[in-house]
Amino acid sequence: MTADIRPHAPHHWIMNLPRPLLAGLATGYSFGVRFRLALYRTGYLTSRRLRTMTISVGNITVGGTGKTPLVEYLASALSGQGYKVAILTRGYGRKHPRRRQLVSDGEKVLDDVHLTGDEPLLLAKHLPGVIVVADAHRYEAGRWVEQRYAPDLIILDDGFQHLALERDLDLLIIDALDPFGGQQPLPLGRLREPLSEMRRASAIVITHADRPFNQEELTTSIEALAGDKPVFYAYREITGLLNPRSEETVLPQRLERRRVAVFCAIGQPMRFVEDVSHFGARVVVQRAFPDHHFFSPSDLHRIYAQARRAGAEWILTTEKDWMRLRSRDLPTDPPLWIVQSELRLVDEARFMSFILRRVMEGAAKSPSD
Q1: 299-330 residue pLDDT tens
Q2: Residue ranges per structural domain of the chain
Q3: In terms of DSSP H, where are the helices of 81-234?
Q4: Does domain 238-342 have CATH number 2.30.110?
Q5: Angle at Cα 314 formed by Cα 208 and Cα 241, nearest 5°?
Protein backbone atom coordinates (compact mmCIF):
# COMPACT_ATOMS: atom_id res chain seq x y z
CA MET A 1 0.00 0.00 0.00
CA THR A 2 1.30 3.47 -0.91
CA ALA A 3 1.00 5.73 2.12
CA ASP A 4 1.73 9.39 2.68
CA ILE A 5 -0.74 10.19 5.46
CA ARG A 6 0.67 12.16 8.36
CA PRO A 7 -0.98 13.45 11.54
CA HIS A 8 -2.10 17.04 11.36
CA ALA A 9 0.57 19.64 12.06
CA PRO A 10 0.28 23.40 11.57
CA HIS A 11 3.42 23.47 9.36
CA HIS A 12 5.20 20.20 8.64
CA TRP A 13 8.59 21.87 8.14
CA ILE A 14 8.34 23.48 11.59
CA MET A 15 7.68 20.10 13.18
CA ASN A 16 11.01 18.87 11.81
CA LEU A 17 12.93 21.44 13.88
CA PRO A 18 14.84 20.25 16.96
CA ARG A 19 12.65 19.94 20.05
CA PRO A 20 14.56 22.63 22.06
CA LEU A 21 13.88 25.10 19.24
CA LEU A 22 10.21 24.06 19.11
CA ALA A 23 10.02 24.60 22.88
CA GLY A 24 11.46 28.10 22.47
CA LEU A 25 8.97 28.96 19.75
CA ALA A 26 6.15 27.60 21.90
CA THR A 27 7.24 29.77 24.83
CA GLY A 28 7.22 32.85 22.61
CA TYR A 29 3.84 31.97 21.17
CA SER A 30 2.37 31.34 24.63
CA PHE A 31 3.68 34.67 25.90
CA GLY A 32 2.11 36.50 22.95
CA VAL A 33 -1.27 34.81 23.48
CA ARG A 34 -1.32 35.50 27.23
CA PHE A 35 -0.28 39.12 26.67
CA ARG A 36 -3.14 39.61 24.18
CA LEU A 37 -5.63 38.05 26.60
CA ALA A 38 -4.38 40.36 29.36
CA LEU A 39 -4.90 43.39 27.11
CA TYR A 40 -8.55 42.46 26.66
CA ARG A 41 -9.07 41.70 30.36
CA THR A 42 -7.57 45.02 31.47
CA GLY A 43 -9.50 47.04 28.89
CA TYR A 44 -6.55 48.13 26.75
CA LEU A 45 -8.23 46.22 23.95
CA THR A 46 -12.01 46.20 23.82
CA SER A 47 -14.60 43.92 22.26
CA ARG A 48 -17.41 45.40 20.19
CA ARG A 49 -20.95 44.07 19.99
CA LEU A 50 -23.19 43.72 16.97
CA ARG A 51 -26.89 44.51 17.09
CA THR A 52 -27.67 40.96 15.97
CA MET A 53 -27.66 37.79 18.10
CA THR A 54 -24.20 36.28 17.54
CA ILE A 55 -23.12 32.65 17.96
CA SER A 56 -19.47 31.63 17.83
CA VAL A 57 -18.24 28.15 16.92
CA GLY A 58 -14.57 27.55 17.63
CA ASN A 59 -11.93 25.38 19.19
CA ILE A 60 -8.89 25.62 21.44
CA THR A 61 -6.65 23.34 19.35
CA VAL A 62 -5.65 23.59 15.70
CA GLY A 63 -7.05 21.56 12.87
CA GLY A 64 -9.72 19.02 12.15
CA THR A 65 -12.02 19.29 15.17
CA GLY A 66 -15.17 19.87 13.11
CA LYS A 67 -15.88 23.60 13.39
CA THR A 68 -17.27 24.13 9.91
CA PRO A 69 -19.56 21.05 9.96
CA LEU A 70 -21.10 22.34 13.21
CA VAL A 71 -21.50 25.80 11.65
CA GLU A 72 -23.31 24.18 8.72
CA TYR A 73 -25.49 22.11 11.06
CA LEU A 74 -26.47 25.18 13.10
CA ALA A 75 -27.14 27.38 10.08
CA SER A 76 -29.30 24.69 8.47
CA ALA A 77 -31.24 23.98 11.67
CA LEU A 78 -31.84 27.64 12.53
CA SER A 79 -32.71 28.55 8.96
CA GLY A 80 -35.21 25.69 9.04
CA GLN A 81 -36.76 27.30 12.12
CA GLY A 82 -37.45 30.44 10.07
CA TYR A 83 -34.45 32.55 11.11
CA LYS A 84 -32.52 34.57 8.55
CA VAL A 85 -28.92 33.43 9.13
CA ALA A 86 -25.58 34.93 8.12
CA ILE A 87 -22.20 33.23 8.50
CA LEU A 88 -18.98 35.18 9.00
CA THR A 89 -15.83 33.22 8.25
CA ARG A 90 -12.18 34.04 7.68
CA GLY A 91 -11.91 31.99 4.49
CA TYR A 92 -8.50 30.36 4.76
CA GLY A 93 -6.58 29.79 1.53
CA ARG A 94 -8.34 32.40 -0.60
CA LYS A 95 -6.48 34.64 -3.02
CA HIS A 96 -7.13 37.96 -1.24
CA PRO A 97 -7.32 37.04 2.49
CA ARG A 98 -7.69 40.67 3.66
CA ARG A 99 -10.49 41.53 1.25
CA ARG A 100 -14.14 41.19 2.23
CA GLN A 101 -15.85 38.70 -0.03
CA LEU A 102 -19.56 38.05 -0.32
CA VAL A 103 -19.68 34.32 -1.01
CA SER A 104 -23.47 34.03 -1.01
CA ASP A 105 -26.30 36.51 -0.54
CA GLY A 106 -28.62 33.57 0.14
CA GLU A 107 -29.54 33.26 -3.53
CA LYS A 108 -26.46 33.72 -5.71
CA VAL A 109 -23.19 31.93 -4.91
CA LEU A 110 -19.80 33.22 -6.06
CA ASP A 111 -18.49 30.01 -7.60
CA ASP A 112 -14.76 30.82 -7.48
CA VAL A 113 -12.83 28.96 -4.80
CA HIS A 114 -9.76 31.15 -5.30
CA LEU A 115 -11.75 34.19 -4.16
CA THR A 116 -13.94 32.48 -1.55
CA GLY A 117 -11.79 29.74 0.01
CA ASP A 118 -12.93 26.10 0.11
CA GLU A 119 -14.94 26.05 3.35
CA PRO A 120 -16.98 29.25 2.68
CA LEU A 121 -17.83 27.97 -0.80
CA LEU A 122 -18.87 24.57 0.57
CA LEU A 123 -21.07 26.27 3.18
CA ALA A 124 -22.68 28.47 0.54
CA LYS A 125 -23.45 25.51 -1.72
CA HIS A 126 -24.91 23.44 1.12
CA LEU A 127 -26.95 26.29 2.63
CA PRO A 128 -29.35 27.98 0.20
CA GLY A 129 -30.94 31.02 1.81
CA VAL A 130 -27.99 31.61 4.16
CA ILE A 131 -25.69 34.61 3.71
CA VAL A 132 -21.96 33.72 3.73
CA VAL A 133 -19.24 36.37 4.02
CA ALA A 134 -15.48 35.80 4.16
CA ASP A 135 -13.59 38.51 6.05
CA ALA A 136 -10.79 38.44 8.62
CA HIS A 137 -12.37 41.46 10.36
CA ARG A 138 -15.53 39.93 11.72
CA TYR A 139 -16.97 43.05 13.46
CA GLU A 140 -16.71 45.23 10.35
CA ALA A 141 -18.10 42.39 8.24
CA GLY A 142 -20.93 41.92 10.74
CA ARG A 143 -21.91 45.59 10.62
CA TRP A 144 -21.86 45.45 6.81
CA VAL A 145 -24.10 42.38 6.80
CA GLU A 146 -26.48 43.96 9.32
CA GLN A 147 -26.87 47.11 7.24
CA ARG A 148 -27.25 45.27 3.94
CA TYR A 149 -29.21 42.13 4.84
CA ALA A 150 -30.63 42.57 8.39
CA PRO A 151 -30.18 38.93 9.49
CA ASP A 152 -31.82 37.51 12.61
CA LEU A 153 -28.69 35.57 13.59
CA ILE A 154 -24.98 35.71 12.85
CA ILE A 155 -22.72 32.66 13.21
CA LEU A 156 -18.95 33.06 13.52
CA ASP A 157 -16.97 30.21 11.98
CA ASP A 158 -13.76 29.70 14.00
CA GLY A 159 -14.58 32.53 16.37
CA PHE A 160 -13.39 31.39 19.82
CA GLN A 161 -10.13 33.38 19.63
CA HIS A 162 -11.74 36.37 17.87
CA LEU A 163 -12.13 38.47 21.01
CA ALA A 164 -12.59 41.71 19.06
CA LEU A 165 -16.23 40.73 18.58
CA GLU A 166 -18.54 39.93 21.48
CA ARG A 167 -20.84 36.99 21.15
CA ASP A 168 -24.04 35.88 22.87
CA LEU A 169 -23.24 32.18 22.68
CA ASP A 170 -19.79 30.55 22.57
CA LEU A 171 -19.74 26.92 21.41
CA LEU A 172 -16.35 25.32 22.02
CA ILE A 173 -15.49 22.15 20.09
CA ILE A 174 -13.29 19.50 21.70
CA ASP A 175 -11.90 16.54 19.74
CA ALA A 176 -12.63 13.36 21.72
CA LEU A 177 -9.45 11.73 20.42
CA ASP A 178 -7.08 14.64 21.12
CA PRO A 179 -8.99 16.97 23.43
CA PHE A 180 -6.19 19.15 24.77
CA GLY A 181 -3.58 19.21 22.01
CA GLY A 182 -0.88 17.51 24.03
CA GLN A 183 -1.37 20.29 26.63
CA GLN A 184 1.36 22.24 24.86
CA PRO A 185 1.07 25.49 22.86
CA LEU A 186 1.91 25.75 19.18
CA PRO A 187 4.15 24.58 17.62
CA LEU A 188 5.24 22.10 20.32
CA GLY A 189 1.63 20.96 20.74
CA ARG A 190 -1.71 21.94 19.20
CA LEU A 191 -3.06 24.43 21.77
CA ARG A 192 -4.07 27.82 20.40
CA GLU A 193 -4.41 29.30 23.90
CA PRO A 194 -4.24 28.15 27.55
CA LEU A 195 -6.72 25.47 28.60
CA SER A 196 -7.96 27.80 31.35
CA GLU A 197 -9.63 29.87 28.59
CA MET A 198 -12.18 27.09 28.17
CA ARG A 199 -14.15 28.88 30.91
CA ARG A 200 -15.22 31.43 28.29
CA ALA A 201 -17.33 28.76 26.58
CA SER A 202 -21.11 28.69 26.93
CA ALA A 203 -21.22 25.00 26.06
CA ILE A 204 -18.88 22.22 24.92
CA VAL A 205 -19.40 20.02 21.85
CA ILE A 206 -17.25 16.88 21.81
CA THR A 207 -16.70 15.71 18.24
CA HIS A 208 -15.57 12.31 16.89
CA ALA A 209 -17.70 10.87 19.68
CA ASP A 210 -18.33 7.72 17.63
CA ARG A 211 -14.71 6.63 18.24
CA PRO A 212 -13.57 4.81 21.39
CA PHE A 213 -12.63 7.27 24.18
CA ASN A 214 -12.96 7.54 27.95
CA GLN A 215 -16.12 9.63 28.22
CA GLU A 216 -16.14 9.83 32.02
CA GLU A 217 -12.51 10.91 32.21
CA LEU A 218 -12.91 13.52 29.48
CA THR A 219 -16.10 14.94 30.99
CA THR A 220 -14.40 15.24 34.39
CA SER A 221 -11.43 17.05 32.82
CA ILE A 222 -13.69 19.43 30.92
CA GLU A 223 -15.66 20.27 34.06
CA ALA A 224 -12.41 21.01 35.93
CA LEU A 225 -11.25 23.33 33.14
CA ALA A 226 -14.46 24.92 31.88
CA GLY A 227 -16.75 24.72 34.91
CA ASP A 228 -20.28 23.37 34.93
CA LYS A 229 -21.20 23.83 31.26
CA PRO A 230 -23.54 21.81 29.06
CA VAL A 231 -21.67 19.08 27.19
CA PHE A 232 -22.90 17.60 23.90
CA TYR A 233 -21.56 14.82 21.67
CA ALA A 234 -21.31 14.78 17.89
CA TYR A 235 -19.72 12.83 15.04
CA ARG A 236 -19.45 12.81 11.26
CA GLU A 237 -21.25 10.12 9.28
CA ILE A 238 -20.62 9.22 5.66
CA THR A 239 -23.99 9.44 3.92
CA GLY A 240 -23.08 8.73 0.30
CA LEU A 241 -20.60 8.91 -2.54
CA LEU A 242 -21.05 11.19 -5.54
CA ASN A 243 -19.53 10.66 -8.98
CA PRO A 244 -19.22 14.27 -10.17
CA ARG A 245 -18.88 13.28 -13.82
CA SER A 246 -22.05 11.17 -14.04
CA GLU A 247 -23.78 12.80 -11.01
CA GLU A 248 -24.55 9.29 -9.77
CA THR A 249 -24.88 8.90 -5.99
CA VAL A 250 -24.40 5.57 -4.23
CA LEU A 251 -24.54 4.38 -0.64
CA PRO A 252 -21.26 4.05 1.28
CA GLN A 253 -21.86 0.31 1.56
CA ARG A 254 -20.68 0.13 -2.07
CA LEU A 255 -17.15 0.53 -0.68
CA GLU A 256 -17.22 -3.02 0.70
CA ARG A 257 -14.08 -4.92 -0.48
CA ARG A 258 -13.41 -2.28 -3.15
CA ARG A 259 -9.79 -1.24 -3.80
CA VAL A 260 -9.61 2.55 -3.43
CA ALA A 261 -7.06 5.35 -3.47
CA VAL A 262 -7.64 8.15 -0.98
CA PHE A 263 -6.27 11.69 -1.12
CA CYS A 264 -7.17 14.85 0.78
CA ALA A 265 -5.94 18.18 2.12
CA ILE A 266 -7.76 18.49 5.44
CA GLY A 267 -6.87 18.91 9.10
CA GLN A 268 -7.09 15.25 10.13
CA PRO A 269 -6.44 13.05 7.07
CA MET A 270 -6.21 9.76 9.00
CA ARG A 271 -9.79 10.22 10.23
CA PHE A 272 -10.94 10.33 6.62
CA VAL A 273 -9.06 7.12 5.81
CA GLU A 274 -10.53 5.43 8.89
CA ASP A 275 -14.07 6.50 7.95
CA VAL A 276 -13.67 5.02 4.47
CA SER A 277 -12.13 1.83 5.87
CA HIS A 278 -15.08 1.49 8.25
CA PHE A 279 -17.23 0.53 5.27
CA GLY A 280 -14.86 -2.27 4.26
CA ALA A 281 -12.90 -0.44 1.56
CA ARG A 282 -9.39 -1.73 0.83
CA VAL A 283 -7.30 1.46 0.87
CA VAL A 284 -4.34 0.78 -1.44
CA VAL A 285 -3.09 4.38 -1.77
CA GLN A 286 -3.15 7.18 0.82
CA ARG A 287 -1.97 10.72 0.05
CA ALA A 288 -2.33 13.74 2.35
CA PHE A 289 -1.47 17.38 1.72
CA PRO A 290 -1.50 20.46 3.99
CA ASP A 291 -4.95 21.79 4.89
CA HIS A 292 -6.54 23.93 2.11
CA HIS A 293 -3.84 22.88 -0.38
CA PHE A 294 -4.53 23.68 -4.04
CA PHE A 295 -3.55 20.57 -5.99
CA SER A 296 -1.06 21.12 -8.79
CA PRO A 297 -1.15 19.17 -12.08
CA SER A 298 1.89 17.21 -10.91
CA ASP A 299 0.12 16.37 -7.60
CA LEU A 300 -2.83 14.95 -9.49
CA HIS A 301 -0.64 13.14 -12.02
CA ARG A 302 1.19 11.33 -9.21
CA ILE A 303 -2.04 10.47 -7.38
CA TYR A 304 -3.65 8.93 -10.46
CA ALA A 305 -0.43 7.14 -11.47
CA GLN A 306 -0.09 5.60 -8.00
CA ALA A 307 -3.76 4.62 -8.01
CA ARG A 308 -3.42 2.82 -11.34
CA ARG A 309 -0.23 1.01 -10.29
CA ALA A 310 -1.93 -0.16 -7.08
CA GLY A 311 -4.98 -1.41 -8.96
CA ALA A 312 -7.42 1.06 -7.37
CA GLU A 313 -10.95 0.80 -8.73
CA TRP A 314 -12.00 4.21 -7.39
CA ILE A 315 -10.30 7.40 -6.18
CA LEU A 316 -11.89 9.07 -3.16
CA THR A 317 -11.64 12.59 -1.79
CA THR A 318 -13.69 14.89 0.46
CA GLU A 319 -16.33 17.48 -0.43
CA LYS A 320 -14.05 20.20 0.88
CA ASP A 321 -11.25 19.06 -1.44
CA TRP A 322 -13.68 18.85 -4.34
CA MET A 323 -14.26 22.61 -4.01
CA ARG A 324 -10.61 23.05 -5.10
CA LEU A 325 -10.82 20.40 -7.83
CA ARG A 326 -14.10 21.21 -9.56
CA SER A 327 -12.55 23.31 -12.33
CA ARG A 328 -9.92 20.68 -13.19
CA ASP A 329 -10.07 18.35 -16.19
CA LEU A 330 -9.47 15.11 -14.29
CA PRO A 331 -8.74 11.69 -15.77
CA THR A 332 -11.61 9.23 -15.97
CA ASP A 333 -9.60 6.17 -14.92
CA PRO A 334 -9.94 5.38 -12.09
CA PRO A 335 -13.18 7.33 -11.58
CA LEU A 336 -13.24 9.98 -8.85
CA TRP A 337 -15.91 9.77 -6.13
CA ILE A 338 -16.69 12.51 -3.60
CA VAL A 339 -17.33 11.23 -0.10
CA GLN A 340 -20.34 13.05 1.36
CA SER A 341 -20.86 13.29 5.11
CA GLU A 342 -23.04 15.03 7.68
CA LEU A 343 -22.66 16.00 11.33
CA ARG A 344 -24.82 14.07 13.78
CA LEU A 345 -25.67 15.13 17.34
CA VAL A 346 -26.00 12.23 19.78
CA ASP A 347 -28.82 14.02 21.62
CA GLU A 348 -30.12 16.36 18.95
CA ALA A 349 -33.31 17.33 20.81
CA ARG A 350 -31.42 18.44 23.93
CA PHE A 351 -28.84 20.34 21.84
CA MET A 352 -31.43 22.19 19.76
CA SER A 353 -33.49 22.96 22.87
CA PHE A 354 -30.40 24.58 24.41
CA ILE A 355 -29.63 26.55 21.22
CA LEU A 356 -33.18 27.77 20.62
CA ARG A 357 -33.60 28.81 24.26
CA ARG A 358 -30.44 30.91 24.05
CA VAL A 359 -31.46 32.33 20.67
CA MET A 360 -34.82 33.47 22.06
CA GLU A 361 -33.07 35.04 25.04
CA GLY A 362 -30.69 36.84 22.68
CA ALA A 363 -33.52 38.04 20.47
CA ALA A 364 -35.09 39.67 23.51
CA LYS A 365 -32.06 41.90 24.15
CA SER A 366 -32.34 45.57 23.26
CA PRO A 367 -30.36 46.55 20.11
CA SER A 368 -27.23 48.65 20.65
CA ASP A 369 -24.91 50.42 18.19
Answers
A1: 999 999 999 999 999 999 999 999 999 999 99
A2: 53-235+344-363, 238-342
A3: 113-116, 118-126, 138-149, 215-226
A4: no
A5: 50
